[in-house]
Inverse folding.
């Protein structure tokens, strides 16, 4: 036991509890963004009709079935008189799982950092009390924070050489949002290189099939169109926002459907590049272990956020814990830039402090989009810095080689421990 380390852990947990309390207070006293309003509408339609009917009549509902089941459940609860008398409203219960998930992610990261993978206490403290998660989980009103928990748990199980649990957690992440499939090649090639691919895929596929059973059996085409083929909003992030700034009419529409031909072409090209890059990173780094495997996941996220045709503000919680584990300094820069962007976004769309309802779809409040360039540029600069650092130290480059980092990772205490840990 290390008394100094245990004290630091206690402080980080305490900060995470403070953040949890603040988020609960914000969620209880606000409605959130128009996402929360949309989710209420989805919940009402799901309760009155069916999942198939909702997919068929709303292109905006692009969530997997588990999210739909939760929405239907909390709609039923908040419509009860006793719940209304307690002051528990739909937007609060919508945000509650994400608030709890944030706290659990901190606990998982503390467990991960008890191995040979060290993260400074100050960086963990910043993550525990992150303004980004405070605003997204406490105020926004979506399921993004929930998705992060099973993903980081799946990565943790990879470090512990437990493919069955890794597959289970990965599949659970895909029940919240479909974007974890971007990381599937990294997980598949990781376990394939160890000869344990069946132990990973069987629980992953089984869990996904069971939880997707309703749409797969009754309306697979509709499910694929609404959920699997979803792409985020054009013109609010990175490259597509820069194309909007050209003033060309072909790139001016802000939407994720009914795009112009030029927009569709750009979206298709970048989607293909992202998929091919994810496959390439995963394949070339398939032998990476320990910290190097976490770098594989972080590089994939970085590539996605730099090249993605569309990124909504709340997506910035997706990559945060992975960047923290790989580069605390880059995480800090990302947290600061993301906090500035998100504060501008929520403050503008809420009409100033205090925040209650934020209408992000209001065209008169679109100036917030310009602030998105700040975290995007930080991600570009941070990626270049990581590339240069690995090149200078003759370590693995995400798209070139992996031999050097593999030999180093295999000799770490974590890798040796994982080699005898079994497949639990």
């Amino acid at each position: 036991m290390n008394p100094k380390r245990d004290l630091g852990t206690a402080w980080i947990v305490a900060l995470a509890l403070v953040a949890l309390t603040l988020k609960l207070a914000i969620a209880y006293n606000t409605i959130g963004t128009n996402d929360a309003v949309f989710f209420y509408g989805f919940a009402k339609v799901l309760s009155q009709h069916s999942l198939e009917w909702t997919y068929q009549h709303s292109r905006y509902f692009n969530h997997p079935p588990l999210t739909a089941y939760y929405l239907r459940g909390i709609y039923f609860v908040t419509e009860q008189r006793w719940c209304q008398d307690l002051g528990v409203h739909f937007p609060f219960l919508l945000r509650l799982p994400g608030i709890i998930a944030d706290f659990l992610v901190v606990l998982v990261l503390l467990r991960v950092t008890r191995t040979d993978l060290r993260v400074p206490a100050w960086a963990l403290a910043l993550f525990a009390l992150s303004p980004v998660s405070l605003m997204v989980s406490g105020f926004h009103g979506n399921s993004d924070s929930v998705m992060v928990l099973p993903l980081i748990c799946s990565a943790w199980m990879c470090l512990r050489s437990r493919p069955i649990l890794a597959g289970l957690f990965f599949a659970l992440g895909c029940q919240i949002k479909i974007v974890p499939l971007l990381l599937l090649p990294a997980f598949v090639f990781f376990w394939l290189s160890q000869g344990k691919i069946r132990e990973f895929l069987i629980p992953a596929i089984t869990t996904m099939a069971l939880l997707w059973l309703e749409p797969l059996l009754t309306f697979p085409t509709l499910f694929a169109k609404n959920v699997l083929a979803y792409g985020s909003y054009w013109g609010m992030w990175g490259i597509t926002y820069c194309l909007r700034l050209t003033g060309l009419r072909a790139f001016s529409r802000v939407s994720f459907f009914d795009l112009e031909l030029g927009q569709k072409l750009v979206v298709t090209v970048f989607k293909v590049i992202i998929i091919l890059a994810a496959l390439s990173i995963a394949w070339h780094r398939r032998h990476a272990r320990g910290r190097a495997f976490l770098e594989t996941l972080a590089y994939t996220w970085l590539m996605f956020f730099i090249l993605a045709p569309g990124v909504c503000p709340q997506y910035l919680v997706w990559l945060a814990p992975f960047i923290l584990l790989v580069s605390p300094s880059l995480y800090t820069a990302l947290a600061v830039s993301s906090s500035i962007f998100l504060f501008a976004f929520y403050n503008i769309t809420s009409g100033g402090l205090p925040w209650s309802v934020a209408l992000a779809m209001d065209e008169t409040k679109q100036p917030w989009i310009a602030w998105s360039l700040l975290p995007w540029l930080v991600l570009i600069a941070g990626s270049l810095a990581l590339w240069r650092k690995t090149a200078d130290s003759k370590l693995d480059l995400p798209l070139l080689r992996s031999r050097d980092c593999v030999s180093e990772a295999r000799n770490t205490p974590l890798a040796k421990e994982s080699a005898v840990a079994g497949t639990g």
Notes: The chain has one domain: 3-419. The chain is about 70% helix and 0% strand. Strands lie at 32-33, 357-358.
